[in-house]
Design a protein that fits this description.
about 270 residues, mainly alpha
């Protein structure tokens, strides 16, 4: 029966506890043996051993596995979007003959600040309430399945916001250091807000609870405080080639960075 089902393209799981179950457990995609009553032969032939011999544990394991897989995809979606942003900004500036919007140390700081705590906090994100209502995914599909349009569009939008502000600052009489500080801060604020938009592939941010992941809130607050320190502490100004920003600058940065909250993932996965 297992061989026929596999031949017809089905994903097959088999439960068993005896020696006679071993061939089916071994031939199935997923063999599930009983940990208490199961024989050693059945356990050796299986991929999963139920330590409590409770079939309900299988359902919980599937739910946990889906949650872990979702969080891995959230991490990848966020990291790639953030890095495409930097690539697009620098590439476009070079093609347009503009000065570099980011200095090397600023790029390192962006990666350190956004790719560390906020990205890691996504690994602690809560599972979607509807996670067990989904159809099983195709085991052959790539982990980037249907993510690239969202990643690329987010990267392009972030780049347009950052590059637009950079050109605006240069053309309105601002110094190069001021323009770099604005675009540097914009890139970080954009990504710190954008991380909330990476928490769900099915729902926009206003249909999720942004406060359900306390680690993520804390990570974003720490990132924001560190960036404020970079902008206002004198010796960090010298190190990162930044200058203090006024209230108008922060309002402009906040307004344009908030666009990151309105990229709707569901559009790209239908």
């Amino acid at each position: 029966i297992v061989k026929l089902l596999r031949k017809r393209g089905h994903v097959v799981a088999v439960t068993g506890d005896g020696v006679n179950d071993a061939p089916a457990l071994k031939d199935a995609h997923i063999g599930v043996a009983m940990g208490i009553k199961g024989t050693d032969v059945a356990k050796e032939a299986s991929e999963i051993v139920l330590s409590d011999d409770n079939f309900a544990t299988i359902v919980k394991a599937v739910e946990e596995g889906r949650g872990i897989y979702d969080n891995i995809r959230k991490f990848i979606r966020y990291i790639l979007s953030a890095n495409f942003d930097e690539i697009f900004v620098i590439g476009a500036a070079i093609l347009l003959g503009l000065p570099l919007p980011f200095l090397p140390i600023q790029i390192l700081w962006i990666n350190l600040l956004t790719d560390s705590l906020p990205a890691l906090a996504l690994g602690f994100d809560t599972k979607d309430r509807e996670i067990m209502n989904r159809k099983p995914r195709n085991p052959k599909e790539n982990i980037l399945h249907r993510m690239l349009p969202f990643i690329v569009s987010a990267g392009i939008l972030a780049a347009l916001v950052s590059l637009g502000l950079f050109i605006f600052e240069l053309r309105t009489g601002g110094s190069l250091d001021k323009a770099r500080t604005v675009v540097f801060t914009t890139a970080i604020i954009f990504e710190l807000l954008f991380v909330f938009n990476c928490r769900s592939e099915q729902k926009p941010i206003w249909r999720t609870n942004p406060f359900s992941n306390k680690f993520l809130i804390l990570a974003v607050l720490i990132g924001l405080l560190l960036q404020i320190a970079i902008v206002y502490i004198p010796f960090l100004n010298v190190l990162f080639k930044t200058v203090p920003l006024n209230l108008y600058d922060w309002l402009l940065i906040g307004l344009l960075s908030s666009i990151s909250l309105f990229i709707i993932p569901k559009i790209f996965i239908r």
